[in-house]
TrEMBL record:
This is Aminotransferase, class IV. The keyword Isomerase does not apply. Coiled coil: none annotated. Keywords: Aminotransferase, Transferase. InterPro entries: Aminotrans_IV, Aminotransferase-like, BCAT-like_C, BCAT-like_N, Class-IV_PLP-Dep_Aminotrnsfr. GO terms for biological process: carboxylic acid biosynthetic process. It holds the Pfam family Aminotran_4. GO terms for molecular function: transaminase activity. Belongs to the class-IV pyridoxal-phosphate-dependent aminotransferase family. The lineage of its organism: Bacteria, Thermotogati, Synergistota, Synergistia, Synergistales. Signal peptide: none annotated.
Length: 287
């Protein structure tokens, strides 16, 4: 705690980390290099944000963290109520308008009987950093790769394809997983394409069940827009009207280009309408 106060006094951009029962500045936290998170990329995480300093859809995020963790053979070292306590305390300590949080559960040092019995748990609190405005206005580029995201229901820390897959496209914000030309999701977002006025997105079995994805599908259906749960095809990009990706921090981000194919419209009427619907419902998800 003393370190934290001194840190704050120095007036640096405030980032905090909760680990082992303490909140400290980010630089003061380290985890052992023996952790399988460091050595093998074993671990899960979840990201959420605040609006008006209140966490958004926290219960849904924590349920997914628990499911990701369970699927990997890790029992959460804190129960959900304790994690909520950590999140609320961290948000209150942050000296900024809005906060984004990443909650991590590592594999720990040991793999035994198919389980990781000694995971490490930490939460990083940072000032909310949204993508630059021009990304929303001009849209972003995605780099398609011909592979599945491994274990799509797990929000894993393993992001190697997300880096390797866009080394040749310096403009690309994320890679887009397209096994055999079927678009599933991008490296850290859910993907939607508007084809003949319908919103097409991969079925839940094939992707991470994104919290924004759930909200957008619900809002679209409630407002009478047609949602088709099938993988959009790379071969349909040339005839599609719009595409966008979603995530809890980025909300709805229009796509301008996928590989060498350009979308007909960027931030077109469907993307804008959904963003409008979403903004009107934010309050319902604050906890
Ligand atoms: C985090 C993530 C998302 C977005 O999830 P939200 O719950 O909407 O924030 C989508 N796909 C992948 C692969 C992700 O890692």
């Amino acid at each position: 705690m003393v370190e934290y106060m001194a840190y704050k006094k120095r007036g640096r951009k405030l980032k905090l980390c909760y680990y082992n029962g303490e909140f400290k500045s980010l630089e003061e936290i380290s985890i052992p290099i023996t952790d399988l998170l460091v050595q093998r990329g074993v671990g899960v995480f979840d990201t959420l944000r605040t609006y008006r300093k209140r966490p958004h859809a926290m219960s849904i995020h924590l349920k997914r963290l628990e499911e990701s963790s369970h699927a990997l053979g890790i029992k959460l070292p804190l129960d959900i109520q304790q994690i909520i306590g950590v999140i609320r305390k961290g948000i209150a300590m942050m000296d900024c308008e809005e906060v984004q949080m990443r909650i991590y559960v590592s594999g720990g040092d040991v793999f035994e009987d198919g389980q990781f019995p000694h995971p490490r748990f930490f939460v990083i609190f940072e000032p909310l950093e949204k993508a630059p405005r021009e990304n929303y206005e001009r849209g972003v580029a995605l780099a398609p790769i011909d592979m599945d995201r491994p274990f799509p229901h797990i929000k894993s820390v393993f992001y190697l394809p997300a880096y390797v897959g866009r080394r040749d496209d310096k403009e690309a914000l994320e890679v887009l997983y397209c096994p055999d030309g079927e678009i599933t999701e991008s490296s850290s977002s859910s993907f939607f394409m508007v084809i003949d006025g319908r919103i097409v997105t991969a079925p839940t079995e094939k992707v991470l069940d994104g919290v924004m994805r759930q909200i957008i599908i619900k809002l679209a259906e409630e407002s009478g827009l047609k949602v088709e749960m099938r993988c959009p095809l790379l071969s349909e990009v040339s005839t599609a009207q719009e595409a966008f990706i979603t995530g809890s921090i980025k909300e709805i981000l229009p796509v301008r280009r996928i590989g060498s194919q350009h979308l007909a419209q960027v931030n077109g009427p469907v993307s804008q309408y959904l963003q409008h619907l979403y903004s009107a419902k934010i309050e319902d998800y604050l906890e």
